Amino acid sequence: MVVRIEPDRELVNFLKSKLTDINSSRSGQWIFPDFPRVRDLGDASYPRVGVTIISNSSQPMGLIDTDVYEEITFQIDIVTKKGLLFTVTTTDEAMGTVAATSNTNRMTYEYLPNTVTNIKHDGTSYGTVTMKDTNSDFTAPASLAADNIEWSYSTGDLNFNATDLAGDVGEAITSTSILKLEGKKCCQYLAREIIKAIKTYWRDDLNNLINPVMINNMPVPIDEDLHLYRQVLEYKFNGFNYAEDISN
């Protein structure tokens, strides 16, 4: 017998196991089945994520088969409050490996950081790390001083000294950086983390919900009365016999 739980609860449990709470000041729940409560909460309760079933349809598996194949559509709401700032530190992010051909060495951050703490090659820090506004501000690699590296605030790209680049072939480049999240940027970040988690782990860690398809990823204009930012994801999953019975 396969024991099941309600599909919205299954998705909530999955997200709880895969997402990291960016609000380090709390330790309680922040992902819920149903739309998250927002009207009577203090700053410490944000951001919040809610999972709601918005449709559920099914069709028979066969002419004489009593099992049904279902299509379940979820709405995932990410909500945060205006003016709240959260800081995410990424330690030793893998940027790539230095290749022998220079035109294959483009490396960039997954999320554009606000501050770069260090950039390392095989665990050894470059001596000087300098932020540039855009790639066009990069120093020519031949002119950049040895043991110096630059990063672009607008793209997250890295720029190496030519001598270092040649000497570091085969070495792994890593970086520790700090990302600041507020308002719309916070909601976008969590939406991307949800999308990555579903894409990467659904086969292994969603027992009964299968074949996810993202239907929509939509930012919602700020609610000026409640001072709230919101991002909405819509996902379609398939399952078996959910609407009839959650244990069979």
Class by SSE composition: alpha+beta
Q: Biggest β-sheet: count, sense, barrel? A: 5 strands, mixed
How would you write the strand order of the largest sheet? 1-2-3-12-11
Summarize the amount of helix as a percent range. Answer: 10-25%
CATH superfamily of the largest domain: Phage minor tail protein U
Architecture of the largest domain in CATH? 2-Layer Sandwich
DSSP summary, beta strand count: 12
Using the alpha-carbon principal axes, give the shape: elongated
β-strand percent reads: 35-45%
User: Taking all residues together, what is the mean pLDDT?
Assistant: 91
- The figure for the number of domains is 2
Low-confidence stretches: none
CATH topology of the largest domain: Alpha-Beta Plaits
Number of helices: 3
Query: How far apart lie the N and C ends?
Result: 6 Å
Summarize the structure.
The chain has 248 residues and is an alpha+beta fold. The chain has helices at 7-18, 162-167, 184-205, and strands at residues 31-33, 48-60, 68-81, 85-97, 115-121, 124-125, 128-132, 148-152, 158-160, 172-182, 210-223, 228-240. The mean pLDDT is 91.
Which key features would you list for this structure?
single chain, 248 residues, alpha+beta, Alpha-Beta Plaits, 2 domains, five-stranded mixed sheet, four-stranded antiparallel sheet, elongated
Description of the molecule:
This protein is of the alpha+beta class. Helices cover 16% and strands 42% of the residues. It has three helices and twelve strands; from the N terminus they run αβββββββββαβαββ. The strands form three sheets. A five-stranded mixed sheet has the order 1-2-3-12-11, with helices on one face.
